TrEMBL record, chain A:
Superkingdom: Bacteria
Pfam families in the cross-refs: SBP_bac_5
Species annotation: Cereibacter johrii
Alphabetic keyword roster: Signal
Protein name as annotated: Peptide/nickel transport system substrate-binding protein
Record bears the keyword Cell membrane: no
Phylogenetic placement of the source organism: Bacteria, Pseudomonadati, Pseudomonadota, Alphaproteobacteria, Rhodobacterales
TrEMBL record, chain B:
Localization (cell): Cell membrane
UniProt cross-references to InterPro entries, sorted A to Z: BPD_transp_1_N, MetI-like, MetI-like_sf
Name by which UniProt lists this protein: Peptide/nickel transport system permease protein
CDD domains per record: TM_PBP2
Organism of derivation: Cereibacter johrii
Membrane topology term: Multi-pass membrane protein
Keyword S-adenosyl-L-methionine applies: no
Length: 535, 321
């Protein structure tokens, strides 16, 4: 049997255990699988999604986070709705992230960095036009980036553009970006969905009124908080793309209403399928569950300025005292992968593969003893929206840890305002992290000393490696730095990672797509130009 | 006496004055209870991009660093001139709420036009045939539908008519681009759900109001005069039961404007209730204020109307001793 058959077999076994399959069904299906494996052995045999894309058609998407405040100011965007419809539909960035996680040119044809990664030159792709026919010029790029750099900027990309010192124009097709310090990841950062390229206005600024982008689709209609409809751009700069004639994004807040809309054929795709509805979608013949491994992870964060979390041995004891397998089976119903006290996802470049953290009462006791304690009391703050299943996970953790002499008192906080009043304010709390496209970006937001989301953790060696790796352009040396940093985080860090989850969507079988990217939701926000309709 | 020469006018004037006072109090309560909510617009809207600098910059731009009382007074001054201000995202509040309000009013009016006459007729029938099969059937079924939560009725409708029979779409997400026919077709399920919810209440109250009048001596007198039972109910009892019926109708109409949030969410109907939820989630105070004002106006307005109707229908109330 090849790898995909193994996965299918594992899946059958899990479903049998959960009671979703009768023993008779299990035998029938598993023997069919074995027979198929013996006959074909072809690696792609179970992947139906390999047909060539087809042109034409209308795709309707049921997403859930549109707001009546949505608008065309790219700095104000904060949802996958605005990311996928505006950034991924109407506009482009200088670069895009391919499904495999590598970065490729989009409006920029090529780029190069001077040694030290402080000065970068991006050469624009020739012949790109905006929807109104105006051709793309270097000034458009400069104004679009500077839009986020104003001193009173409230842009979501502020943390990225703060590293930029100047943007200069060299000739008619090259933009030179000078950073305040070297950063080898700049191309990745420029793929951020806020950094869409808009047409510049005379006298500075960008045109945020007319929805005039370079993207694969024209904005046909936009009703904030309700729906957005896009129409194919016949002059798009990518061969054959987009495949679809029209796309409609429909806002459906309620998870049950979303599922109903899919099942009754009102939409072809729904975002964030509820775990409890997975089997319902799988049972129907017309739809499938799409699981895209992502950077998103659920954690219990410790404030290392507060006792007992200031003691690295107590932190290790807490890390050993959680039975992640149990939580994944009972709370996430198998729909998650095990965390390893490392916030870097396995799909991420520079992920360092370390032996899994196993549940061990003996080790937890050993570390407590090293800290000079035979038991410890901690308050763990959770709320239902800290992450899906946070309260249940904490309840299991309480039981797992009790045996090691760790007494966890679960504090149920109000869901409303959790992120303002509990996260980074209470010393031990559950957190839902969406991750960041690069390791450097992740570390600079949450783990280096003084990072905006750091809750007190500081490690001199970690900071030093972070500085070295950032300006290093030799991939092997960078990888070595990042590996050591991930080990430091696992053994000394302030975060207990419970699990990594996938973007879990449900999609009609009439929709075609290739490999789906997971660094950002919705195929790295590019679903409307990458997907097609099969019939 | 001048007061008695236009009793209805002076009564209406004083009621309207009281209504305005209630609106003022409502706006005060809403404004300050929103500021009691944890979290702020800036951190809600910036989400995982909320660095402390970005939050501070946004709060300054929106004037959230000003004292709350000052913000309230300037909002009130503008609202008094009909200007509901700008939402925090920079669009005028009326531009945000206008289309939503129109959708809500459309849904409410269609439902009301069907529900009110139907409920009163059925109520009268129940009272006329008290204790017979039709009365027992309607009393039991209305009791059952009152007892079910509205979202359950909604899901039930959806399961039967959208999933199983596939007669109607499960989503009532109407849009400007659709023609009237399609909009109406998409509104069938929410209307049906709302009918089930409000009919029950109105039928039961109409029946009760008529029956309480039916025990009065003058009804006995009418019967002794030999009038038919149907005529007694419609000509003698009903006119004197208008007061209580008008109040229950008013209550249900106000509910149709302000209380259908759950149904809007379930059927993805873009009404004003969804807009308010969205605004509360984002702490978009100007929009929340405007929604509260609209809802309060609906309640106060309909109740005022009911009062006027019942007073006009019963002259004794015009001249209280």
């Amino acid at each position: 049997m090849n790898k995909s058959h193994h996965l299918l077999m594992d899946d059958l076994v899990t479903r049998l255990r959960r009671g979703q399959l009768s023993r008779r069904e299990f035998l029938a299906r598993s023997s069919a699988l074995l027979a198929a494996g013996a006959m074909s052995g072809l690696p792609g045999a179970v992947l139906a999604q390999e047909a060539a894309p087809k042109a034409g058609g209308f795709m309707r998407l049921g997403l859930h986070n549109a707001s009546q405040n949505d608008n065309l100011d790219p700095g104000s965007w904060s949802t996958s709705w605005t990311g996928a419809s505006f950034n991924g539909g109407v506009y482009n960035n200088l670069v895009e992230i391919l499904p495999d996680g590598s970065v490729a040119g989009d409006l920029a044809e090529s780029w190069e960095a001077e040694p030290g990664a402080k000065v970068w030159r991006f050469k624009l792709r020739p012949g790109v036009t905006f929807h109104n026919g105006k051709s793309l010029e270097v000034e458009d790029v400069r104004q679009s980036l500077e839009h986020h750099m104003k001193p009173d900027s409230t842009s979501g990309a502020r943390a990225i553009v703060e590293q930029i010192e100047t943007i200069d124009i060299e000739g008619s097709d090259t933009v030179r970006i000078t950073l305040s310090e070297g950063n080898a990841d700049l191309p990745y950062l420029l793929s951020d969905y806020h950094l869409s390229i808009y047409p510049a206005l005379e006298g500075g600024g960008i045109d945020m009124e007319s929805a005039n982008g370079t993207g694969a689709f024209l904005l046909e209609s936009f009703e904030p908080g309700i729906a957005t409809r896009l129409k194919r751009n016949p002059n798009y700069h990518k061969n054959n793309k987009p495949y679809l004639d029209e796309v409609e994004f429909i806002n459906i807040t309620d998870a049950t209403a979303r599922l109903n809309a899919l099942l009754t054929g009102e939409v072809d795709f729904i975002q964030d399928l509820d775990i409890r509805n997975v089997s319902m979608v799988e049972r129907s013949g017309d739809f499938e569950v799409q699981r895209v491994p992502s950077l998103r992870h659920f954690t219990f964060d410790m404030d290392t300025r507060v006792a007992p979390f200031d003691n690295p041995d107590v932190r290790l004891a807490l890390k050993h005292a959680l039975d992640r397998d149990d939580v994944i089976e009972k709370v996430f119903l198998g729909e998650a992968t095990k965390g390893n006290d490392n916030p870097v996802a396995s799909i991420q470049k520079f992920h360092h593969d370390m032996p899994a953290r196993e549940y061990s009462i003996a080790k937890a006791r050993e570390h407590l003893a090293k800290a000079g304690l035979d038991q410890v009391n901690v308050d763990l703050s959770v709320a239902e929206n800290a992450f899906a299943g946070a309260i249940e996970a904490a309840t299991l953790y309480q039981r797992h840890a009790a045996e090691a002499g760790i007494n966890i008192n679960i504090v149920q906080e109000a869901a409303d305002g959790y992120w303002e009043n509990v996260w980074r304010k209470k010393p031990f709390c559950a957190v839902d992290y969406f991750g960041r496209a690069t390791v450097d970006w992740l570390f600079s937001t949450s783990y280096v000393t003084g990072a905006p989301w750091n809750s007190g953790w500081s490690n001199a060696r970690f900071d030093e490696l972070h500085q070295t790796a950032r300006a290093e352009t030799d991939e092997a040396k960078r990888a070595a730095c990042y590996a050591e940093m991930q080990e430091i985080l696992r053994d000394d860090g302030n975060v207990i990672t419970v699990a990594f989850v996938s973007w879990r969507n449900a999609v009609s079988k009439r929709i075609g797509f290739g490999e789906v990217g997971g660094l950002m939701p919705l195929d790295n926000m590019r679903m409307c130009e990458r997907w097609w309709i099969k019939d | 006496m001048n007061r008695t020469s236009h009793p209805i006018l002076s009564m209406v004037a004083s009621r309207v004055g009281l209504g305005l006072l209630s609106l003022l109090i409502v706006s005060l309560v809403i404004f300050f209870s929103v500021s009691l909510l944890p979290g702020s617009y800036a951190s809600a809207i910036l989400g995982q991009n909320a660095t402390p600098e970005a939050v501070a910059a946004l709060e300054t731009r929106l004037g959230l660093d000003q004292p709350a009382i000052w913000r309230y007074l300037s909002w009130l001054a503008a609202a008094a001139t009909g200007d509901l201000g700008q939402s925090f995202a920079g669009r005028p509040v009326m531009a945000v709420l206008g289309p939503r309000l129109l959708n809500t009013i459309t849904l409410a009016s269609i439902t009301a036009v069907i529900a009110v006459p139907l409920a009163i007729t059925l109520g009268v029938i129940c009272a006329r045939f008290r204790g017979r099969f039709i009365d027992r059937f309607l009393s039991t079924s209305t009791l059952a539908s009152i007892s079910l939560p509205e979202f359950f009725v909604a899901y039930l409708m959806m399961m039967i008519f959208a999933v199983k029979l596939q007669w109607f779409p499960s989503m009532a997400g109407i849009r400007n681009s659709m023609d009237l026919g399609e909009q109406l077709y998409r509104m069938v399920l929410p209307i049906l759900t709302l009918l089930l919810v409000i009919l029950a209440h109105m039928i039961r109250n109409t029946r009760a109001a008529i029956l309480s009048v039916m025990s009065s001596p003058y009804v006995e007198m009418a019967r002794l005069k030999g009038e038919s039972e149907g005529r007694v109910v419609t000509r003698q009892a009903l006119p004197n039961a208008i007061g209580p019926i008008a109040s229950v109708v008013a209550l249900n109409l106000a509910y149709l404007i302000s209380g259908v949030v759950v149904i809007e969410v379930v059927f993805v109907y873009p009404g004003v209730g969804q807009a308010m939820i969205d605004a509360v989630r984002n702490r978009d105070v100007p929009v929340i204020q405007a929604c509260a004002l609209i809802f309060a106006t609906a309640y106060i307005g309909f109740n005022l109307l009911a009062d006027i109707v019942s007073i006009v229908s019963n002259p004794r109330l015009l001249h209280p001793r």
